[in-house]
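Quick one: structure for this chain?
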Amino acid sequence: MKYFVSLLVFVSCLLSCSSPDVDMIIYNAKVYTVDDNFTVASAIAVKNGKFIAVGGEEIRERYSAKGDLDLNGLPIYPGFIDAHCHFYRLGLIQDQVDLRGASSENEAVQRLQDYAKNIPAGPLLGRSWDQNLWASKEYPSRKTLDALFPDRPVVLQRVDGHAVWVNSYVLEKAGITATTQVDGGEVVLEAGEPSGVLIDNAMDLAYAILPAPSRETQIRAFQKAEEIGFANGLTTVDDAGLDRSQIELIDSLQKAEALKMKVYAMISNTPENLAYYLEKGSYQTDKLNVRSVKVYADGALGSRGAVLKKEYKDDPNHKGFFVTPAADIEQLAFRLAKKGFQMNTHAIGDQANAVVLAAYDKALRISTDPRWRVEHAQIVDPKDLAYFGSKIIPSVQPTHATSDMEWADERLGEERLKTAYTFKDLLDWSGKIALGTDFPVEEVSPIKTFYAAVIRKDTNGSPEEGFQMENALSRSEALKGMTRWAAYSNFEENQKGTIAVGKDADFVILTKDIMTVGERQILSAEVLATFSNGSMVYRRGAEQ
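Got it. Here's what it folds into:
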């Protein structure tokens, strides 16, 4: 409670006090600067949205401030950066039925029924079902949906975003039959007919029959996502796949001060987007950075869309499929390298990673500092690890390892599982690793990212010995991955990522020090306040 009172007094001073020197001083803190020496300071001063001083108690003697705050030893970290997420999608799905954690197809349908009571007409949309949590582990069926909703579209996205479950109404309107073929996708069949599950590029057929979100809906989505992000200590998000219209809306909202979250926008790989941005060139403001292209090499492991070098253990006739053909990946790599754009490619399976890394290696011989990223780098053949280095950075999501570990061996087998989620190996080869959550696939929680990277257990403390602990990151490495290395992977290390004089005053205050507390206490750490450019954008308790 004393922290809340202190923050209230602090905010009051900022609004009413006057000073010729700085806007604020925070002292008696444990400030993790995450600089080259991993220096821990005790005080900071901020003016005009920048850190103007970082050090000790001498700061209070040197400057007077509009407001000052005694943190009583609480920790401060650079603002957290989510290096791979779906910010826009997070906002959109807040109005959809949440199927996360449903233990059966019947439970998922019951949640949908309850949700539908408040949606009398139009499409029924949902997200985050996962058949791996069900006793049968089988894909759901359109028949279950047809019995309840025969006359309106139902589109329910799988937890990984790489499959949807739809009813017959959608199949009919989309013209999907047993003979429908989709490059880079699959119409799953059941007894020779579409089951209602569409994987990867086949999902586009279902989405095409849905009305596009209105401008008002899109604005509300961005603002809802921002609220959630700030509450979790995020000050920059890397949205992995946005169209031109969405990027331009973000820009206009930020310029109007209607959106304060900083966005590293990865351009979706479409002909229209590439034609525009590769001609126009990169674009950057103080809150928006557009210089990268998001490409999908393959699908996800959970929906068996990841491309493997050898067959799936639980599906011996299947190796997955490329969402983007291998030849197109290499061709695009050369095109982007010549234009100076960063290429950020989703690669899950070991064959997908091998193809992407080889294409990068060829194309980047003409580039000196490209910082191209492999998004997920989930299963990498040890002989392909050497591709990683100063030019190629792994961008991984630690909670994928702890979410997938209950069933990943069913897909891969024990021996191949040892080549998956190898964060430490990736770091050793590249020298840097960017960390994210992939939300809303996983929860919006840098704290859980940190915990999964370091402790390698799920939130229930399983497995007891940790999952393949030889690939755990140290606490300092994990914090760097969420701050300075993520900033570096965005070409923004001179602007953010560490607490240093001249950089943006983006920082987060936690209730516990995740760098020193015991293992289980990490998960109980909460965000007390989040600051972006020196402005408090979230305060614990203010939302209540």
